[in-house]
Amino acid sequence: MNAFAYVRPKDLDSALSLIRSTPKARFLAGGTNLLDLWKMGVEQPDTLIDINRLGLSQIAELPDGGGLSIGALARNSDVATHSLVTERYPVLSQALLAGASPQLRNAATVGGNLMQRTRCYYFYDPNFPCCNKRDPGSGCGALNGFNRIHAILGQSDQCIATNPSDMCVALAALEAKIHITGPSGERVIAIADFHRLPGEQPELDTTLRPDELITAVDLPAPADTKHNLYLKIRDRSSFAFALVSAAIVLGIGEGQITSARIALGGVAHKPWRVPEAEAMLQGVKPDRATFEKVADRLLQGAHAYRYNQYKIPLARNVVVRGLLAASA
Ligand SMILES: Cc1cc2nc3c(=O)[nH]c(=O)nc-3n(C[C@H](O)[C@H](O)[C@H](O)COP(=O)(O)OP(=O)(O)OC[C@H]3O[C@@H](n4cnc5c(N)ncnc54)[C@H](O)[C@@H]3O)c2cc1C
User: Fold this and answer.
1) 23-57 pLDDT, tens per residue?
2) Going by fewer Cβ within 10 Å, which terminus of the chain is more open, N or C?
3) φ and ψ of 179, to 5 deg
4) Which protein residue's CA is at the shortest distance from atom 52 of ligand 1?
5) Nearest atom of ligand 1 to the alpha carbon of 109
6) Could you tell me the domains of the chain?
7) Is there an atom of ligand 1 within 6 Å of 194 CB?
8) pLDDT score of 1 more than 80
9) What is the pLDDT of residue 64?
10) What CA–CA distance (Å, rounded) separates 176 from 69?
11) Cα(225) to centroid of ligand 1, in Å?
């Protein structure tokens, strides 16, 4: 392990000034992803800025009437079990509880979960020489390698990695807003614009700048909490990342769907939404034939590789089964 400095700022301004003056520094939240990457040699920070004293762990109603503000340092387990989350955003609670293990959820934070990196084997292990995400320009080992867990939508010939987060899939379906602070002040990014597709720059996972800090995630007031669902398919029933998952948030009134948001996980470099597919559900009665057409539209353009062909029918089945269960 390389020598490094460890600092524990007590306020936001100190944390921001440290990251600005130390380009190879990293923020430390729960450490559950950063330390793994460091031990593998993927990350090599010269300074750890421990942000755990910044007091960003609130889970509180927004003054706007009905929305919720979740601090970047709120632990995944605290968010998952908070009554405001279980009652108003059950899809978020379900997604968080489907991730990792209780011990990891006790340490992992909302900000760290938003920033967690792909689980692509070629990225995670520097013994593989090719990974454009870890070493831009070196090639993509997964493209012709063992690509069982890889993307089927939105990928590029530079990178076919997926975003591994469960929480972010639920946040996408809930249309969360990410609050950020940096040298030019505060800004807010819609979750849909926070994670990127790989394109020509797969080394960039998000639109967060290196000298910015996530402070909070805001959720809008929920419309209908009865027809929320997170469905995750994985190799084991616990302690495994999603092969395919879906967060479904429906509004239903008088037997008809009044609003629909569907986000898919495990299929792309970011949670995957297709507004045209969601629009097909507006004003219709829940029914399998419509759900199958919606699934086809969501997966339009999907492209699989040698080992992940199973993901296309699996994702279709997840969408149909999820919609049937959520609308029941
Ligand atoms: C064995 C194992 C199994 C797992 N299974 C799952 C799973 O099934 N589903 C799932 O979704 N996740 C899973 N995870 C991942 C886990 O959810 C993440 O490791 C965790 O959410 C990261 O949060 P953290 O606070 O520990 O982040 P850290 O490791 O502290 O930080 C991660 C990154 O985020 C940056 N960062 C942290 N906070 C901020 C902030 N406020 N602003 C800007 N940058 C910040 C750090 O600098 C670092 O680059 C698993 C992890 C492990 C180790």
Assistant:
1) 899 999 999 999 999 999 999 999 999 999 999 99
2) N
3) -95, 135
4) 100
5) 25
6) 5-52 (3.30.43.10), 228-327 (3.30.390.50)
7) no
8) no
9) 77
10) 10
11) 27
The reply to whether ligand 1 has any atom less than 6 angstroms from the CB of 112 is yes
For the chain, percent of residues with pLDDT exceeding 90: 96
Averaged confidence pLDDT in the chain: 97
The pLDDT, as a whole number, for residue 223 is 83
By C-alpha distance, which of 25, 123, 113, 132 is closest to 73? 113
The residue whose CA is least distant from atom 32 of ligand 1 is 112
SS3 content of the chain, % helix, strand, coil (to 5): 30, 20, 50
DSSP 68-92: EEEETT-BHHHHHH-HHHHHH-HHH
- CB of 15 within 8 A of CB of 91? no
Distances (CA, A) of 241 to 19, 96, 132, 177, 267: 31, 12, 22, 24, 12
Report the chain's terminal Cα–Cα distance, integer Å. 53
Cα gap 177→179, rounded to integer Å: 6
Question: Residue 96 is encoded by which pair of tokens?
Answer: 């968080």
Taken as a whole, the chain contains a residue count of 328
- Quick check: CB of 31 below 6 Å from ligand 1? yes
49 lines ligand 1 (CB under 6 A): no
Task: Verify whether ligand 1 is closer than 6 Å to residue 93 (CB atom).
Answer: no
Whether 46 and 25 have beta carbons less than 8 Å apart is answered as yes
Query: How many whole angstroms separate alpha carbon 83 and alpha carbon 171?
Result: 17
8 A C-beta contact, residue 77 and residue 104: no
**Structure tokens given for 253:** 């009134």
**How far is 123 from 146, CA to CA, in rounded Å?**
12
Residue nearest to atom 31 of ligand 1 (CA): 112
Query: Does the structure show a pLDDT above 90 at 303?
Result: yes
